Give the backbone structure.
Amino acid sequence: MSKDYYDILIAGGGMIGTSLALALAPLGLRVAVVEAIPRKAAAQPSFDDRSTALSRSTQRMFEAMGLWPDIVAASTPISSIHVSDQGRFGFSHIDAEEQGVEALGYVVINRVLGAVLQDALDDLESVDVICPARIVDIELAPERASAVVEHADGERQTLSCGLLVAADGANSAVRDMMGITAQKSHYGQRAVIGNLLPEKDIDNMAYERFTKQGPLAMLPVADGRAGFVWTVSEQDADRVMALDDDAFLAELQHEFGYRLGEFSRVGKRASYPLVLSRALRLTSTRSVLIGNSAHGLHPVSAQGFNLGMRDVAAIVDCIAEPGAGTDTEPGSRAMLERYARWRQSDQKKLVRFTDSLVKLFGSESRPLRTLRNIGMLGFDLIPGVRSVFAKHTMGLAGKLPRLSRGVPIK
Ligand SMILES: Cc1cc2nc3c(=O)[nH]c(=O)nc-3n(C[C@H](O)[C@H](O)[C@H](O)COP(=O)(O)OP(=O)(O)OC[C@H]3O[C@@H](n4cnc5c(N)ncnc54)[C@H](O)[C@@H]3O)c2cc1C
């Protein structure tokens, strides 16, 4: 094979593309990752200042990949989740102990996770990282795919591969080049993120509060601080972002209440437009979509990255599962068909789950408000309901690939 040939070429070295390259390492395949923006650059859109709640299935994956000791050392465990609806007294509570796990999830800052993943990638000889460079054109043929890579100085090179993986995010250019359409609907909301110091100890509790403007999450992070994801309406977002720190904290406090005492010392803020996007297909000849290029979710239930990690684990199984009974060659038709069949149901369920949560709690219509009250009650009173919800948020529902069950690949 020529040196410009790879078994797997990954477009996008963000949270999902990098994780896929690491997950594939034990298989001894030649892998390249093409990433447009260096990890430490301020403009890196994946490894930024957001905090991500890692679900139990993602934790198990990183354990099986041998990366968990470094990740857990930089993370904060969630021991319980408190769900409330602004203007109502009722609230619900999910507890790690009740679910029989040591933590419901772990919160890590994306930049910090990026450093751990990058260090691990640097140690791998089987993976070439081509950065800064972007994929600007592709050609898909039954025997192999090829991609034109443009480097930062404008120089171009063509690489060919058995399987081309589009992990280039929700606005995936490679998805367009594959001829796959994504359905997009704008929520008319933006997520404002940052962190602050609460007066009371957050005590490893994650808060999800549904307000008139949209959901507001408060997550435990390092040094007693809380990371917030505050959904505001698109019309109001510029005003909220422009507030000085004191005025910003006062508005956030008004939305959240005083469960954690008074807020102070807010850090740098950033905002993200919220769009639901769903690719109409997951594969094309010799190519596949994973992570946000396949599905971009509202952050309400902190599931986007975790869902993408299950895509990663399923790809690995479709290539490497012994006794799969089908052709497992990367990019073969059988391998791609098996992947698409497997992933469609989990992706559909989670898209529906997060979208319904946003719509159910975002509406002021009378029937929906009634349903919501029953919903909150049902949540607490009907045995089993909380467990099913918890299973979804921990990423443990449905048929799980080996890595998501914590089984090492080799
Ligand atoms: C406010 C907010 C909070 C969130 N919180 C959570 C959470 O708590 N838990 C959770 O599971 N998920 C969460 N998510 C979702 C999660 O951040 C995403 O699902 C995840 O980042 C998707 O990763 P990705 O690698 O697929 O895409 P991206 O993060 O978008 O990365 C794509 C990468 O591809 C690169 N790229 C783009 N085009 C090209 C090209 N042509 N050639 C080469 N490279 C290219 C980009 O530079 C980038 O590095 C949250 C999202 C938001 C907005």
In short: The chain is about 35% helix and 30% strand. The pocket of flavin-adenine dinucleotide is lined by residues 11-17, 34-37, 45-46, 50, 52-53, 134-135, 167-169, 173, 191, 193, 229, 272, 291-292, 299, 302-306, 308 (CB under 6 Å).
